[in-house]
Every structure is written in C-alpha cells, then in structure tokens.
Design goal:
The complex is a heterodimer of chains A (595) and B (259). Chain A is an all-alpha fold and 595 residues long. Helices cover 64% and strands 1% of the residues of chain A. Classes of the chains: A mainly alpha (595), B mainly alpha (259).
Chain lengths: 595, 259
C-alpha cells in the first residue's frame, strides 16, 4: 500500500511541459526569474519568500535583543547614549549622552525588539512560511484556495514591515510593543513615529487575516479525495486552529489601533482619561487580540512538534484525536483569558474569573505534552537535529507552561506582575516554544523545500549551543524576577548584577548557535548532498512527491488510503532506509516486513 | 508560470459570452467547489468586518453605561429624520442588489445593470445625506431647519431661504477635545461625538468600498463577464453590500433612536 493509489488517480490536468519540473527550476534570464518570483502565485514560492523575510526580521529583532542585553550587562548604562545610542540621538533628541537620553535609547531598543519579534517574526513565522509551503501539499491540494490573495498577503506583510522599520529609522518608538494608552497617544507628538508603527501593525494584521482565511477555506474545501478530517496530519490541525484565531482575533486589534490613531490625530478621548476615556478599555481591546495571538504563536509550533516526534520516532502519534481536539480547545479557550493581563487593573471578581479561565488552558496543553511523551515511549527514536529540537521544545515549553501558573494565580501575580519573571516566562513559551519548533521544522523540511541535505553534526552542535544559551539567558531572569527586578528598566541595583551578566553571556551563546545554524543551512544549499524524496521515512503526503516538489505539487492527484502516522502497517513511499538508517535496524527491518 | 493558468487555454467557443467560457482555477476540482470556497472565504472575511465594528459597539456600550446622561443628551442632538431617510435608502439598495444577483442568475442582463446602477445611486444618496445634512452642518455650526433642538436657540442666522440656520457660538459638534459648545449639559459629551463620528465614518468608508465593488461588477457586466453560469463576483459584492446595510441597521437605532 502506498500513499498514492495510482490505479484510481486521474492524470493531471496540466501534466505536460514545465509543470513537471521542480518549482525552483529557473527558466530564462535572471531578470525574468526575479519577475517570476515577484509575481508568483505558487504557494511554495510564497512560503519561501515568507521564510526569507521572516528570517531577516528575526535577525534584526535578535540584534536588538543583543543590544538590550549589552545595555543590562552593567547596573548603569554602557551602551545606550555612548555607542549605538549616538546614532539614534543624532536624529531625535538634542541633548547628549545624559541618563535620560540613555533610558530613552533603551526604551526604543526593547520596543523595537518586542514589536518586531511579536508582530513580524513569531506571529507569521510558522503559518505563513512553513504553513504556506506544506499545508496544501499535506492535504494533497495543488495550491491554497486563493493563490493571488496569498501573494497579496505577502506584499502586505512586506509593506507593514517596511513601515515598522521606517518608524525605527526615523528615531524609534519607546512605548513598548503593547502601545499602552495614554502614553502612546501623548508621547512623541512632533514626529509621528508611534502612529507609523501602529499603522504598520494594523497593516500586518491584514496580512494575518488574509492568510488565516485562505488556510481555513483550503482545509475545508481542498482536501484530497479520501482525506477525512481525522486523516489530516496534525500539522494541518494546528495551522487550521491558528487560522481560526487569526481570523477571529485580528480585527479587534485593527479597530483598537484605528481608534488609537484617531486619538492621536483628533484627540477623540476614547482611551485618554483626561478626556473621559478609559485606558483599561484599551488594555481589554488590546489583549482580546493579543492573548489569542499568543496561541497563534504557539499552536503552529506545537503542530510542528507533533510531526517531528511522530516521524523521527517512527510511531503512530499517541491519542491523535485528543491532540487534534486539544488544538481546537486551546483556540477556543484562548478567547476567554485576556483579562489575566490586567489583574492589577480590574475588579476582584473579574480577576478571579479570569484567573480560573486561565488555568483551563493547562488542560489541552497538558494533553498534548503527555501525548507527545507517550508517543516517544518505545519509539524508534532517531536523534537528529529535528528530533533534538522536539526534545528541546518539550523541555523548555514545559518550563514555560508551568511558570505560567504562578502568574495566573492572583496572589502570586501581585508580586510577580511586570517583573523579569514574566519576561522569562513568555520567552520560555514563545522563544523556547515557537522559535525552537520553527527551527526544528525548518531542519525537518529543509530537504523537501530545497532538495538538499544539510550537515547533520554541525547542526546538532548548533542546536545544543542554542539550548544551553537559551537556558543561560532566561533562568537567571526567573531568579531575579522572583526577587523583584522589574522589567523595562535600563539601570538596576547591584544585587542583580551577576544575574544580568549570566543572562548576557547566554544571549551571546544563543547568537553563536543561530549563526552556526544559518551557516549550515546556507552551506547545504551550496554544497549539500541531493536529498531523496523521503529522507526521514515520513508517511504524510509531502514525502510522496519529489524533493523539491514539482510546480503542481503532485504528478497525479493523490488519493489518501491510510492515516498520516500508520507506521505499524505502512512502508513509507520512496524511502530507502539504507541511505538514512535509523538507530534500531531491527525495528526498521520489521517495518519493512510490514509488521 | 503560474498555477492560475486555467484562463489561458480554454477550449470553449470564442463567440459565446464570457461567463459561458469561464473556467475555474485549476486547483479547484469544479466550478461549483470554487464558488462554494469563494463564498466561504468571503463569509469569513465578513465575520472579521463584524468584529471590527464590534470594537465600536463595545466602546458605545461601555461609555453608555459609564455616562448615561452624556449619551442621552448626545443622541438628542441627532435628527432621526436624516438617519431614517438613510435607512430607507439603504434598505432600497439592499433590495436592488438582491434583484441584481437574481437578474444575473436568470440572464436578464439589462435589468441587472439597472439594478446595479440604482444600488450605486443609493450609495451616493446615502453619503450625500450623511455629508451634506449631517457632517458638514454639525462641524460648521449650520443646521438644517428641521432640527428640533434649534427651536429654543435665539442667536441664529438663516440661509438658503430659511433652509439652514447658523447657531452662533455653537462651534460645531466635532469629535475629540476640539469639541466645544456653550449649551453642552454634560462634561463627557465629547465622548459621545467621538463614538458617533468613529462609528459612522467607518461605516461610510465601508459604503464607499461597497460602491467601488459594485461599480467594478457593473463595468465587468458590460463585457458579459457574469451570467447564469458564473456570477461569483456579483454574489460577493452583494454579500458585502448587505453587510454594510446590516451594520447601519444596528448603528441607526443605537445612535439616533435610543435616548
């Protein structure tokens, strides 16, 4: 039995000429190739374009993080106002390297880091790049439902990012990535950098909505014959749940930012208390979007982990339906918990209710984590880079999830609110969760996307560097946060010196790890071995087509005849275990014998 | 090369009208599926539009609860007759839009075009009433004589044969902190005008977008793009226009009728 039942397959409508070539194949001159990419409606090319854009912005945001860590290396300023600060100061404030100017610079740098990482990196990272590339292939479709809309959302994303970078070039924004009113309506009135940044985020929201609704329609309408809802790979379930949140939450930030812009332009006073408005209303509106968006960030990460663990442990995922429903469950609960960002600004009863609702998220999340661990149990685990990242994810995300509990508990949150404990917590969830899954997913699918194998050993070394660097960066932040170090301060008392130093060293290690990854991946494009169609022995549909896939994804319309993880009964198509042997040869032989 | 190349090689008779030659995008299995998918996608998009306005309605509800006096006074400053006229105009346009879709499906193209034109005309009429009789007078201090609130105001000038009255010292009912007029009874009344102007202006923007969509459908209908076998664009424009109507149906009583 194979993934594609050719006896029932119809010949492809356009299976002639260049449609059988790899989607990366170039025809004609350099200029016409570039034009081809700029006007393509092929979801694979758009996915690669997203990946490229996201990685560039990840680099910019990461650089800002390093600057923040450098600033905090000493209790008083070392960077701000001296080295890099002078660049910003020359454009904005006339005063020289005073403490105020340094603080000003610091505020702008962490805002830059936060805004870029949240709105331009983590939110679009997995769905828009890997999702765009693999969602249609995994359900056996030729493209997403609305290919031109897909290209449009990439352009909207780029335009939004350009606006955001423009506001930085003009001198930066110092409101923090949350743009809390009334500060964001009153600061920096002479320049309109805040307005530009807010507008940029508004534009980026459109990109998110369009991608989300494209994916929902694609999953509903374009699944291959034979693929029921519960034959979909778990990656699809995760991206589908994410798309629902994107569609239902993003408009709310749209109207919020529109009102914020109106408030800046016309002083309408919906959020400004001096005009009768309510600043906590802004926080309600903002977090009604931004909390579900936390799950937009983590759900696709979880979805990747499901794939990595099933494929690289060669086992049917434990409790497939529970994992699938857990994605929808998380998506549903995500809309009910926004109030936990305002425990210190709401009434007691509301806080009490939101605290209880917040605990609910732990249930579907734990279902997923325990199911992954159960899948690993007695699996034929191949320790390679993707699997390493899956394990790193499990470790870091569990810490991130559990440290959420003291923050969701009213009594402890009063102490921990706006401290470095919060900073460490959301970095463990977002970076330890999403970014680790993203990097793991990139390695998992790299041979499929570009047709080249990367060097496994250096990539694993890089993964270990990232793991150590990450923990060295953020564990000290838990410790000092619990001792009362507040977030968003450029200077601090000497007691926290050693923690900040460790944290900064950790961030350097992280940088080295990621640069090594970048080197390994670029090297593979230049000098990598040609990848086979199915290097890992996966059973989902993307492994049943060429590496890299042809322009129309499949030579024949696939008809699904088995589940995505039926390793115990199906031999993967195109898979030669001699090329990429798994550690347990006996088990591989058993799989081949069909046991 | 694109994956949307279905339009480039079409075997049908080149003399048949464009809608009969329409071929669905090749990543869809059939035209019916494409139609269903497009409609599902557009319904999802409409849900995002509803959520966009939900923010305005939410602000309305909260501030109404906090400052009931300001809300009562604010809505008494609006003339329900203009809102009512606009409601009737939009309801009429909703009917003509639905009729245009039906005419398209049944192949009555002249009737379809007339209905589309009436719909656009209704949109223009709606905006004209909004800008000429509501926004502009309120901003400048000129009021249409029907405004019942002007009966007890004495410092007035008249224009256009008594059609408009200018209220001295009124300052215009602008949104935000620029808002100021001497006989405002409530300190929070600027908030009322903020919500009023944000809500109605956002709605007016949607009316304009809807009119552009319908105008596009009209221009394409001249080339026989739409017909009984292919009318996705007409249907989509219609859905959008009905949403615009629906939002006004909520805005009108909230802003004009409830005191």
């Amino acid at each position: 039995m194979s993934t594609i039942d050719t006896s029932r397959a119809k010949p492809h409508a356009a299976s002639h000429g260049h449609h059988d070539e790899s989607y990366l194949a170039s025809r004609g001159s350099l200029f016409s190739n570039i034009w081809d990419w700029c006007t393509t409606v092929d979801h694979k090319k758009i996915g690669v374009m997203y990946l490229f854009a996201v990685l560039i912005l990840f680099f910019i945001g990461g650089l800002a993080a390093i600057l923040v860590r450098l600033e905090l290396f000493e209790p008083t300023r070392v960077v701000g106002g001296k080295v890099v600060g002078s660049l910003f100061q020359s454009l904005t404030a006339p005063e020289a390297t005073s403490t105020a100017a340094g603080n000003n610079w610091y505020n702008r740098t962490f805002t830059l880091h936060g805004a870029i990482m949240v709105f331009m990196v983590i939110v679009p990272s997995v769905p828009a790049s890997l999702g765009n590339f693999f969602l249609p292939i995994q359900i056996g479709a030729k493209d997403v439902a609305f290919p031109r809309l897909n290209l449009l959302s990439w352009y909207i994303y780029v335009i939004g990012s350009i606006f955001a970078v423009l506001s930085i070039i003009l001198g930066g924004v110092d409101t923090g990535w949350t743009f809390y009113t009334p500060y964001s309506t009153l600061t920096d009135l002479g320049f309109s950098r805040v307005a530009i940044m807010v507008f940029a985020v508004f534009v980026l929201g459109f990109s998110s909505i369009l991608t989300g609704l494209n994916f929902v329609v694609t999953v509903h309408k374009l699944r291959a014959p034979g693929m029921g809802w519960f034959d979909m790979p778990l990656f699809i379930w995760g991206v589908y749940s994410t798309a629902i949140i994107q569609v239902l939450a993003t408009p709310v930030i749209g109207i919020t930012l529109l009102l914020l812009c109106m408030e800046r332009l016309f002083r309408i006073g919906i959020f400004d208390p001096s005009l009768g408005g309510d600043p906590v209303l802004y926080q309600h509106f903002f977090w009604f979007y931004s909390h579900p968006v936390v799950y937009v960030m983590i759900l696709p990460g979880m979805a990747i982990i499901s794939e990595l663990i099933a494929v690289h442990a060669r086992k049917r995922i434990f409790g497939y339906r529970a994992v699938a429903f857990a994605s929808l469950g998380i998506a549903a609960v995500s809309f009910l918990v926004w109030g936990h960002h305002m425990f210190t600004g709401m009434g007691e009863m509301a806080s009490f209710i939101f605290s209880g609702l917040t605990f609910l998220v732990a249930i579907p999340t734990a279902v997923k984590v325990f199911n992954w661990i159960a899948t690993l149990y007695k699996g034929s685990i191949a320790i390679n880079t993707p699997m390493l990242y899956a394990l790193i994810f499990l470790f870091l995300f569990t810490i991130g999830g559990l440290t959420g509990l003291p923050l969701a508990t009213l009594a402890t949150d009063v102490h921990l609110h706006d401290s470095y404990f919060v900073v460490a917590h959301f970095h463990y969830v977002m970076m330890g969760g999403t970014i680790m899954a993203f990097v793991g997913g990139i390695h998992h699918w790299w041979p499929k996307m570009f047709g080249k194998m990367y060097a496994e050993k250096p990539a694993m070394v890089a993964a270990i560097l990232v793991f150590i660097g990450f923990n060295l960066t953020f564990i000290p932040q838990f410790l000092m946060g619990a001792q009362g170090m507040p977030r968003r301060y450029a200077s601090y008392v000497d007691d926290f010196h050693i923690y900040h130093q460790l944290s900064t060293y950790g961030s350097f290690l992280l940088l080295v790890g990621f640069l090594l990854h970048a080197f390994v991946l670029v090297h593979s494009l230049v000098a990598g071995k040609k990848a086979p169609a199915n290097p890992w022995g996966g059973l989902t549909l993307e492994w049943a087509t060429d590496s890299p896939p042809i322009a129309h994804n499949f030579h024949h319309e696939p008809i699904v005849t088995h589940g995505p993880y039926d390793y115990d009964s199906v031999v993967p198509p195109h898979w030669d275990p001699k090329d990429y042997p798994l550690p347990d040869q006996k088990q591989v032989a058993q799989i081949h014998a069909g046991h | 090369m694109t994956t949307l190349d279905a339009h480039t090689h079409n075997p049908a008779d080149p003399n048949s009208p464009a809608f009969a030659r329409y071929k669905h995008g090749h990543h869809w299995r059939s035209q019916a599926e494409e139609f269903d998918g497009t409609k599902l996608g557009f319904w999802l998009f409409l849900s995002t539009e509803v959520l966009l306005f939900a923010g305005i309605f939410c602000a309305y509800a909260i501030f109404r609860m906090l400052y009931p006096e300001a809300w009562a006074e604010g809505s008494s400053q609006l003339d329900w007759r203009f809102g009512g006229a606009n409601t009737i105009v939009l309801l009429l346009s909703s009917y003509t839009m639905a009729a245009a879709i039906y005419s398209c499906q049944t192949g009555k193209f002249a009737r379809m075009r007339i209905n589309l034109l009436i719909t656009i005309a209704c949109g223009i009429l709606f905006l004209a009433i909004k800008f000429l009789f509501e926004y502009t007078p309120k901003w400048s201090g000129w009021f249409f004589f029907l405004d019942p609130h002007l009966a007890d105001v004495h410092h007035t000038k008249e224009a256009l044969g008594g059609l408009f009255k200018f209220v001295e010292g009124y300052g215009g009912k602008r949104p935000g902190q620029f808002f100021d007029y001497p006989f405002a009874k409530d300190a929070n009344i600027p908030l009322w005008w903020s919500v009023y102007y944000c809500g109605t202006a956002l709605h007016a923007l949607h009316v304009i977008i809807g009119m552009i969509l319908i105008a596009r459908v009209y221009l394409k209908s001249l080339k026989m793009t739409y017909g009984p076998t292919y009318y996705t664009g007409v249907e989509i424009a219609g859905l959008y226009w009905h949403l615009v109507d629906l939002i006004w149906i909520f805005l009108f009583p909230l802003l004009y009728l409830i005191h």
